[in-house]
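Purpose: get a first structural picture of the assembly so the mutagenesis plan has something to point at.
Setup: two entries, given in the order below. No constraints added.
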Amino acid sequence: MSTINFAAREINCKIVYYGPGMCGKTTNLKHVFGRVPEHLRGEMVSLATEDERTLFFDFLPLDLGSVQGFKTRFHLYTVPGQVFYNASRKLILRGVDGIVFVADSAPNRLRANAESMRNLRENLAEHGIDVRDVPIVLQVNKRDLPDALPTEMIRAVLDPKKELTLYEASAAQGVGVFETLKAASRLVLEKLSQNR
Amino acid sequence: MIEPSLALYGEAYAKVDQHLEELLEQTGVRYCLLVDRKGFVLSHKEALWAPRPPALDSVATLVASNAAATAALANMLGERTFSEQTHQGDNGTLYVESVGDHALLTLIFDSSVALGKVKVYTRKSIEKVVVILDEIAEMPQPELGDDFSKGAVSLLDDLLG
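Result (structure tokens, whole complex):
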């Protein structure tokens, strides 16, 4: 990575991929890592168990470049999805600027999606953040499953008021990954310029 | 609540830089990083003689996560936080000390440097750096208008297609 110091005017934003266990958060990040040119990204850090389940987080820094003299960077994180890792999941949400909620299309994961969304709200509340204040994008992943539930059914559970932007994806094939990230980043950038 | 971490030009930052440089010279450590609690590198210095450092973004993220995890542990034990962490390996040491509530000073050095000496000088530097960081926190945030957002979004298009 390029040298960073106080002489550089920098804006750093943190985007967190959230969702139930095995929904494809790490797969999203791996796809981004694989497709972004080397000079614009840093190293990907994965703290995972031997069977590649995320234990603490995955981390990927992305460089956008300079905008009006501000070097703009995104730090992408995933959380461990498994229910019993909530303590570490909560830590990763600290200082979050934008969230991608990855939902699983498998019929037997519908309840897990709902629980994870509730957990997200609870954890944000503990950080003193209102869900409505953080840009959130909903990604309905694993659309390639033969028995995938209809998108609208998943949405009805996670986002009944249809407030969130929704993207369909098959992260393993890379479908919808960049679209989702772009939407989330855009929301974060808009929020930045509104607030200041 | 959106909180980007912002680093700006200015006298204050030059001063922090200088304190880090002095600390590096006084202690003989390899690398010295000021990292915020979210894992962003605020400033870093490396000794001229030291080999190329590992990816600093990764170091910063891991140090911040580690500090967050230890702080959660501290809370469980009835402490507000643990202000200092030392990790010693066969050949080197990673030493992390809190700088106020928002930053962490990280020093990486090999076995030729005495930990005690590093601690003494680090504490002195931190006293000075805390004051500067507090000043910065009170400085007005720069205005980012629509132009910023437009420019950034077009870069985003370039990056993500």
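Residues 3-195 of chain A form a domain with the Rossmann fold fold (CATH 3.40.50.300).
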